[in-house]
Amino acid sequence: MKSGDQPWRVVGQGLAGTSLAWRFLERGAEFTIASDGRPGSSRVAAGLVNPVTGRNFGPSWRIGDFLPEAAGFYEKTGSFLGIRCWHPLPVLRLARDAEEWRRIDARMANPEAAPWIAGVAPPPPGWHAAVELRGGGRLDARAFLDASAAHFEKLGILRQREEDPPDGPDARTILCQGAAGLLDGRLGPHRCAKGEILTVHAPGWSESHIRVGAGGWLVPVGGGRFKAGSTYEWDTLDSEPTVAGLDRLRETARRLGGDDAFAVVAHEAGVRPILRRSQPVIGRHPDGGFVFNGLGSKGSLYAPGCARRLADACLEGAAIGADLDFESFRHGRA
Ligand SMILES: Cc1cc2nc3c(=O)[nH]c(=O)nc-3n(C[C@H](O)[C@H](O)[C@H](O)COP(=O)(O)OP(=O)(O)OC[C@H]3O[C@@H](n4cnc5c(N)ncnc54)[C@H](O)[C@@H]3O)c2cc1C
């Protein structure tokens, strides 16, 4: 830092702000990080990383770049903090019927999907067919964020308060506010989606795989517990769990876990920060400073790689690729 420069100011301690803070620490930058104490969507998320997703069984955007970087980052940071927060786990993608299986089967040869496919697997009872994927896993996001916060606190760089500059961010502020930074529309139209998630206890269910099927997923988190998710709702963007969500997620859990009894341990909701599906943006904020947002449904996958690129841009003036750059996105070029 040149003498006379103010320290950088990271606003928000979700996956975006926390990953950026670690990238700043790696480079010896002077900065503070502000947390308003709200859980945000990161502390609600299951942390699932699935290389090939959706009804169309398509590889996640730039998965080959971002997945190895994310796994390495969580392993290294977790080991520094003395916690294990990244849990690699194969994914079992299930097909309900012959028609869905035909769709999946046709896409298995896609050269971008092929590296992640381990092979056809026996389906669990009640399912038509299954394919096993490699490279998946789960980030224990809450453990990662809480241990990071404790470390930042020890370093004296964590500000436990809301930080909102009145006239837009100054040149050294980086807004990592998640949905809270999109809902007011200052960054343009958004597509934020509320999501609900269950934690269930089911000691009889298999913990060998993440299971994905019928529009939902079931993620083993250890000790006979699983996360089941998740709903999408675009009209009511609050963090209140609903009865309809509970019913829907109980059905998802039962469908993916099996007929054994299970108990609901927790039911939570959050708002995913979405600008364009799950393709994040980083770069200069139109009012000054920088922005890191739009992690969508895949924050665990994209936060570490985006944070590295943004730290390079802030500290070394490195160019941001057009497909991530917020200015290019705003001007409709990416
Ligand atoms: C139900 C559900 C399930 C999900 N499951 C997964 C999953 O399995 N895998 C996956 O990868 N992703 C999942 N996601 C998506 C994931 O949660 C997001 O991609 C990611 O957490 C977004 O991180 P963020 O840091 O941008 O936002 P957030 O986590 O929302 O963090 C932003 C933080 O900044 C704070 N803040 C805002 N303004 C200020 C201010 N002025 N001062 C101080 N602090 C401020 C907010 O309160 C918040 O704490 C899920 C989301 C939901 C809702």
CATH class of the largest domain: Alpha Beta
What are the secondary-structure elements, in order, as H or E? EHEEEEHEEHEEEHEEEEEEHEEEHH
CATH architecture of the largest domain: 3-Layer(bba) Sandwich
Largest sheet: 8 strands, mixed
Question: What is this entry, summarized?
Answer:
With 334 residues, the protein is of the alpha/beta class. The chain is built from 7 helices and 19 strands.
Description:
Helix content is 28%, strand content 25%. It is of the alpha/beta class and 334 residues long. It folds into two domains: 8-87 and 136-189 and 276-330, 3-Layer(bba) Sandwich (FAD/NAD(P)-binding domain); 193-272, D-Amino Acid Oxidase, Chain A, domain 2 (2-Layer Sandwich), CATH 3.30.9.10. The protein has an eight-stranded mixed β-sheet. The protein has a six-stranded mixed β-sheet with strand order 11-2-1-12-19-18. A hairpin with a 4-residue loop joins strand 4 and strand 5. Helix 1 crosses helix 6 (299-316), helix 2 (63-81) crosses helix 4 and helix 2 packs across helix 6 (299-316). The longest helix has 19 residues, at 63-81. The radius of gyration is 20 Å and the shape is globular. Flavin-adenine dinucleotide (FAD) is lined by residues 11-17, 34-36, 38, 40-42, 44-48, 162-164, 176-180, 195-197, 229-230, 270, 272-273, 293, 295-301.
